[in-house]
Structures
1.
Amino acid sequence: MRSRIPTRLPDGGGRARSRFALGAALVGVPLALALLGPLLAGAPGPRAASFTTGGGHWLGTDFVGRDVWHQVLLGGRSVVLVALAATALAYLIAFPVGVVGALTHRTWLEELLMRPLDVLLAVPSLLLILLVAAAFTPGAPALALLVALVNIPDAARIVRAAAADAASRPAVEALRMQGETWWRTAVGHVGRSLARTLAADAGVRLTGVLYLVATAAFLGIGVEPDAADWAVMVDRNRTGLLVQPWAVVVPALLVVALTTGTNLLVDTGLEKRRKT
């Protein structure tokens, strides 16, 4: 009995390119609106009745009669920049803490670095932000610091675990026997070996950071109650969802597109590196 052998293998490269293009489009639209929107918004037009459509407002008006499209153009920068800054700051601190904790031979130093982070990890992220917000009113920079702070413990543990695995390989022992400096071993070899792990974690972490920043803005932390902010738009306009849905749907879709596209790009990049 003759077996049939497929004459054409699945086009894995074409599927990867399609996923990359989709991810780039999903990320590109909200990023472009967030970064370029304030430059394109111009002066606000006259206000109209709340939750109306038409009348020159092609996405309608919001809860106080402002043009929704104008608010969308202005409202992305705060969410996106705070999330990106918080994610970068979290890794900026977590990376050296995790690498030093994994490579040091001094137990007391490892305990000094990691145990306080375990205590902080036990506190729910949103609860900590709410407690700080109850003591004083944080602005956007303070919110970025707070979100970075609550993400450092988890990120540092991931870095430490990956660095400890890389440090146990024969290549690192060979570098030590050759008399290489600690800096070159830690950064030049161990640090580079963490790139794939950190890339995978960054996609998931950025999603969580965006969720936390949007939730904080939804609760009025870090932004003014009537600010042009995508998360604030969702909160303030949800009462008119059935009457004028675009004021809620458009900003919510932009946040979802940014998080979904980021993870799609990261997954596609990791898959491509694994195959090569």
Note: The chain has one domain: 62-275.
2.
Amino acid sequence: MTIHHLNCGTLHPPSQLLVNGRGSLTAPATLVCHCLVVQTGKYWTLVDAGLGSADLRNPRDRLGDTFLRRVRPALNPAEPAITQVQALGIDTHDVRSIVLTHHDVDHVGGIADFPWASVYASRAQMDLIIPALRKDMVRRLHPVQWSHAPQWKPVTLSETWRSRPSFRLNDSLSLVALDGHIEGHCAVVIDRENKPPLIHAGDAVMDVKTELFGGRAPLGLRAFQHMTRTDARAWRESRAWLKECVEDGIDVICAHEPHPRLSGAR
């Protein structure tokens, strides 16, 4: 199995010290939109989609002023997943599926670059956007990012993986419930040959190397996580479960940590 790690959107929120835990209080921090391209048989699957090319062309409408002001994305034309897939020598039409941890704007924008791909997300996530957005999610989820009529494939988590609701998408990938950050938020679990699984935990944690290894995330990240979570109890339970996975030797990455701690995911 081949797994490529991509940064599909560099973000520069205020304060290195408060967000990255080092450096200057006044210099901008650096976060990423960590996506994966996973070979599944003849074809490829994109795990989360980051910022897409249309987001870069029309950031105010597709990302919103609040997002642009708070996280100050670099809007680098080299970063959309479709550009990086091409650079890897992969036929873009061989990306047949996209699996989303959730629908926040920095996770979903790239799906528009792969309109032929099946887009998988938990049914609970889909219930937030179809048939209509909840009022309290209007600033967080932007329908313009899926105005191209994606090939949605809502998934009901009718199975279990390590005691949590799950659904196996194919021989290699599963969606696993990881609630708390937003309703229907999931981890994507990738089974690897001769290695423990790799878990993409989305936004359930934002600093794996501290939060899951006995430390505390920098103050700015902690404040952001508390501000954006929708269910505090579920959020704590999800993080406790991820910590158990790490203690059992499973690799966990998250969506925004610039330098993930891995035992070797490729």
Note: The chain has a mean pLDDT of 92.
